[in-house]
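Comment thread on ticket #2218

A.B. wrote:
> Attaching the input chain for the structure job we discussed in standup.
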Amino acid sequence: MTVERLQKVMAEAGVASRRKSETLITTGRVKVNGEVVKTLGTKVDETDEIEVNGVPLQREKLVYLLFYKPRGVISSVSDEKKRKTVMSYFPDVRQRIYPVGRLDYDTSGILLMTNDGQLANRLTHPKFKFEKTYVAKVEGIPTNKQLEDLRHGVKIDKKLTAPAKTKILSSDLQKKTAIVEITIHEGRNHQVKKMFEKIGHPVNKLKREKYGFLTLEGLQSGEWRELRPNEINRLKSGR
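C.D. wrote:
> Ran it. Output below, let me know if you need it in another format.
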């Protein structure tokens, strides 16, 4: 049974932001099991009945989806330019899901969708070093020295990248292109593209093939599946 702070549960249910939820609690507008609660940090579980301003709190079932994002799709809940977003692929999902991190508009591949804010924060927080593996088609054929630079870290946006794992999967001498696999655990803006630009091999096409231990096996572009219980547990435990 999951035990969480009251203000966190309220925020995730869409009542208000966590800060505003704290104000609702301290001003006596929240009840737990019929009793007014004013103490911040009060813990609740799934069996507790919560009321805000006399209205019962409706908690969403947590969902975890693995999505094969196509190119030309925005990794966002909405887009002010009215471009197609990942949400258009989930018309029958009632929960208010959102992407964990982002993939560029022209990048395809694996993307997690959930309404579990705690897990999303864990997976995107730098300290947990969650690995993501990309396959890039680049201009030219990187040398061993250039790949070694990526493995040790290169400076982009005035900051050194963390060490990466890299290997050439194939090369085309006639077309002067190469397919390179790269694994990183950071999530900086356009990071993979900037890393290859730094060593003089711009990316023509990019796909994220692995998210930790998760792969796109069995999925076509635009398809998704629910994560299995053991997969969810592994993500939460960091294994």
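A.B. wrote:
> Thanks. Noting for the ticket: The two ends are 21 Å apart (CA to CA).
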